[in-house]
Amino acid sequence: MDLPDPVPINRDGGRFGLFAYVPAVEAQKTFCLFHGTPNRETAYARQFFNQGAADMGAIRIASGRLRGQKIKTPAEKTTRPLLSRLRQSLADILRPGLEGCRILDLFGGSGAIVFELISNGATSAVIVELDKTAMALIYENAVSLGLEKRVRVVNTDAIAAISALAVRKNLFDLVIVAPPYGLCLQQTVLDKICLNPVVKPGGTVIVQREKKEPVGRVFRPLIFDRTREYGRTVFDFYQRCD
Predict the structure, then answer these.
(1) E-assigned strands of 53-182?
(2) What is the rounded distance in angstroms from the CA atom of residue 178 to the CA atom of residue 209?
(3) What is d(CA 194, CA 240) in angstroms, rounded to the nearest whole number?
(4) Would you state the pLDDT for residue 199?
(5) pLDDT level of residue 79 (50, 70, 90 thresholds)
(6) Where would I find the beta strands (DSSP E) of the chain?
(7) Running DSSP on this structure, what letter comes out for residue 128?
């Protein structure tokens, strides 16, 4: 399985701080190399992994071989899990091309979209998530679903992740952009992807937005393909056409 190698760590911190890929199975020990000494990193991991069930929510995978399996979500409003029917609709659209698919999710949240797509045939994924609590849950969810060897998690900003992946020529069949609504992040990320391609030729970028938000503008190598609306939620599809 072709997963990216770890990105060298910028120990000077820089704008985005420490940045490393961590296979989910190793994340509990290293916990994505958060800021601070190893003791502080261990304390972060212990704090988040030991949160009680009362602090968590839960949703279920809606389709595929893992249908019905639970995914934990933070009780806080740090993530916006996609409704089951929308995840299933997205999986239905993508299913014909999911076999062997490598996914990049730039705003991971609980990891629910990636887990739904792996349940329907995708091979592997890199999940980017800046929030530490959500990061811990992605790891825990991957382990509980038996996907710890197929998922890598990245604790960094989405823009920094795109730059690092592009430099290392890591390309994906499918890139998911589902940021918080109302911050105009969709356009910012699309601009970055156009300048720093992380999607394979013929691959797809899916942008999730609220209906009142504008359709993102792109330039080659990306072209706009189609839109699918589900109430207030909209998915815009873009293709890489070199």
Answers:
(1) 56-60, 70-74, 102-105, 124-128, 151-154, 172-177
(2) 7
(3) 9
(4) 97
(5) low
(6) 21-23, 56-60, 70-74, 102-105, 124-128, 151-154, 172-177, 199-210, 222-230, 233-240
(7) E
Residue 35: other Cβ atoms inside 10 A: 12
Neighbours of 48 (CB within 10 A): 20
Q: What is the assigned CATH class of domain 21-240?
A: alpha beta
Query: In the chain, where are the structural domains located?
Result: 21-240
CA neighbor of 56 nearest in space, from 33, 79, 34, 40: 79
pLDDT(102) > 60: yes
CA–CA gap between residue 60 and residue 79 (Å, rounded): 16
pTM for the structure as a whole: 0.78
CA–CA distance, 139 with 30 (Å, rounded to integer): 12
Residue for token digits 């760590």? 9
Taking only the tens place, the pLDDT of each residue in 202-242 is 999 999 999 999 999 999 999 999 999 999 999 999 999 98
